[in-house]
Write a structure and sequence with these properties.
Layout (H helix, E strand, L loop, with lengths): L1 H13 L8 E4 L5 E4 L6 E3 L2 H9 L6 E3 L26 H6 L4 E5 L6 H7 L4 E4 L4 H15 L2 H22 L6 E5 L1 E2 L2 E4 L4 H8 L3 E2 L8 E3 L2 H7 L3 E5 L16 H4 L3 E4 L1 H5 L5 H12 L2
Parallel strand pairs: 3-4, 3-5, 5-6, 7-10, 7-12, 12-13
Antiparallel strand pairs: 1-2, 8-9, 9-11
Helix pairs in contact: 1-5, 5-6, 6-11, 7-11
């Protein structure tokens, strides 16, 4: 928590520094990163960071990406340095691209940080947990790339879209939602996730919102006891819950209230999170 507070405060203070001045930012691993000029060659090991880079107009500054960085279409022409997990990333391929900055995931790539730094590559770790931190990350990407004004516009559009959703759902009853992340074992979203916040902002109520665990294993009995009115899942899951005999007693299944949301929009901390919220809201509150 201390690292995250420092991360946000250092970002806010840096907004007022001129681009040519030395700027210090604290990343999601609590590391202080100092830079003096906009990065011109960036490797992104996060699909979300790649989306943000293109969204703020820094697509031409992206020198490398993962095989999972598939949005927008323009990103597909960028050289690939590996998959998303740290074990599949080639640090040699990254170094060969001579980047002046590499964005990594604090959760997935921590072991790569000393390896990359040992090769002279500057690394900044990202891992926002909620929408406010997503806004801060977009601002940080804008700061690193010299695209601060564009980043502000991206955040502004997200907030405007979310305000429209709030207007749509204001005063309406919040249906109970179970988000199925995986089926074997049965996994769902706890309270400290984008999924939970997206459900809430869309006018729903996550039945496991009171659990602090981000991604948690649950039993069918727990789901049945809480009896969700809707079951949601990402498009990367796509399991037919109606084929499970016991699940026919759950209200969501009995009433055929099962919905699939594009996985890339809901699981990535990019601008399309607002689109995922809007999609959920249209289903919950037609």
């Amino acid at each position: 928590m201390k690292n995250r507070i420092s991360f946000l405060l250092c970002f806010l203070f840096s907004l007022h520094a001129p681009l040519h001045a030395q700027t210090e930012l604290v990343d999601a691993l609590g590391r202080k990163i100092v830079f003096e000029r906009a990065a011109q060659r960036i490797v992104s090991l996060s699909p979300a960071a790649t989306e943000i880079l293109f969204a703020v107009g820094a697509g031409r500054q992206v020198a490398g990406r993962t095989g999972y960085c598939n949005y927008p279409a323009a990103a597909l022409s960028v050289p690939i340095v590996g998959g998303f997990s740290g074990a599949t990333v080639s640090v040699e391929s990254i170094a060969a691209l001579k980047p002046d900055l590499t964005f990594v995931s604090a959760d997935m790539h921590q072991r790569l940080v000393p390896l990359l730094e040992g090769l002279g590559v500057m690394v900044f770790a990202l891992e926002p947990r909620n929408f406010e931190e997503v806004y801060a990350v977009i601002g940080i990407v804008g700061r690193f790339t010299g695209r601060e004004q564009n980043a502000d516009l991206v955040v502004q559009r997200m907030k405007e879209n979310l305000a429209q959703v709030e207007k749509r759902t204001r005063g309406k009853k919040a249906p109970k939602v179970f988000w199925e992340l995986y089926d074997s074992p049965l996994m769902t979203s706890g309270g400290n996730t984008f999924v939970n916040e997206a459900i809430t902002r869309a006018g729903g109520r996550n039945i496991f919102a009171n659990q602090n665990t981000r991604w948690m294993t649950v039993s069918f009995e727990q789901v049945l006891l809480l009896d969700p009115e809707w079951i949601f899942m990402g498009s990367d899951h796509g399991v037919d819950v109606t084929t499970r005999p016991l699940w026919r007693t759950v209200s969501a299944v009995k009433n055929n209230r099962i919905a699939v949301i594009d996985a890339d929009t809901i699981y990535r901390y990019g601008p399309r999170l607002a689109d995922a919220v809007a999609a959920i809201a249209r289903i919950l509150h037609p």
